[in-house]
């Protein structure tokens, strides 16, 4: 039985942790979620040097005193991008905002510098492996599944990791609520990508009538008979964006027709 200390929070971590727990040959002996948990990590690793470390979206700086305990393989970090592209805290969101259709995942050795460690494994999933306009949740789940399955198959015989090209690195930024408002002066595709990227946080908001609404789902106007009769259309720089599902402030989510009938219909 291979023992693992798991570091992580959020959807990427949830999928990875679940897959590890289901495998009969691996056991998670501790799940580190916070900075305070690192003291227990040091105690466990010192008592059993054979323990592996796997990390997915931990969100806490791990210092050298912990990193050194996991040599020579290091803590194995699942990062959802084709490193060195999209280093940082929001790789999937940034890829969606940029209009990417393919999404990638890397497994690297965690080092002190952000997402700069050598690469054990990388894979790109092409657009035909996702639903049309996939949600963040779908992207997180599929990338984490591919990476974790690779780890479980190779943990007992890891390849030599390959250094990253730091000169080719790009970086993401953290999002905040100041970025939530949708701007119809942008293209409809830009707004649709923002709605998808900001699902959950920081959310995408728009004033409709006198109601501030979180926009949950939308699609580009195709001028089909159905779209011609859509109740809520946002006129953008190049074409219309049709709102499918939304949530008025202080209310439950609803479809666009229900919102129109309750708030906009005269």
Fold and architecture overview:
There is one protein chain. The chain folds into two domains: 2-168, Formyl transferase, N-terminal domain (Rossmann fold), CATH 3.40.50.170; 177-264, Formyl transferase, C-terminal domain (Methionyl-tRNA Fmet Formyltransferase, Chain A, domain 2), CATH 3.10.25. The chain is of the alpha/beta class. The protein has eight helices and eleven strands. The model has no long low-confidence stretch (mean pLDDT 95). Helix 1 packs parallel to helix 5 (136-154) and helix 4 runs antiparallel to helix 6. Strand 3 (52-56), helix 3 and strand 4 form a beta-alpha-beta unit. The strands form two sheets. Strands 2-1-3-4-5-6 form a six-stranded mixed sheet, sandwiched between helices. Strands 7, 8, 9, 10 and 11 form a five-stranded antiparallel sheet that branches.
């Amino acid at each position: 039985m291979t023992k693992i200390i798991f570091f992580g929070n959020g959807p990427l971590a949830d999928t990875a942790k679940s897959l590890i727990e289901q495998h009969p040959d691996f056991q998670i002996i501790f799940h580190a979620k916070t900075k305070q948990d690192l003291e227990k990590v040091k105690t466990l690793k010192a008592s059993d040097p054979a323990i592996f470390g796997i990390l997915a979206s931990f969100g806490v700086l791990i210092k050298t005193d912990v990193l050194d305990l996991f040599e020579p393989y290091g803590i194995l970090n699942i990062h959802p991008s084709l490193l060195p592209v999209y280093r940082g805290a929001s790789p999937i969101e940034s890829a969606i905002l940029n209009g990417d259709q393919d999404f990638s995942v890397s497994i690297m050795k965690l080092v002190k510098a952000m997402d700069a460690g050598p690469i054990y494994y990388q894979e790109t999933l092409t657009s035909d492996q996702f639903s049309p306009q996939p949600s963040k949740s779908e992207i997180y789940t599929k990338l984490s599944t591919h990476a974790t399955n690779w780890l479980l198959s190779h943990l007992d015989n890891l390849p030599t990791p390959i250094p990253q090209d730091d000169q080719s690195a790009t970086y993401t930024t953290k999002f905040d609520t100041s970025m939530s408002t949708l701007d119809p002066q942008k293209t409809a595709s830009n707004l649709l990508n923002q709605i998808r990227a900001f699902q959950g946080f920081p959310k995408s908001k728009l004033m409709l009538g006198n109601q501030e609404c979180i926009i949950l789902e939308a699609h580009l106007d195709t001028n089909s008979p159905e779209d011609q009769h859509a109740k809520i259309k946002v006129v953008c720089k190049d074409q219309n964006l049709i709102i499918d599902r939304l949530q008025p402030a202080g209310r439950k989510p609803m479809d666009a027709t229900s919102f129109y009938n309750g708030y906009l219909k005269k």
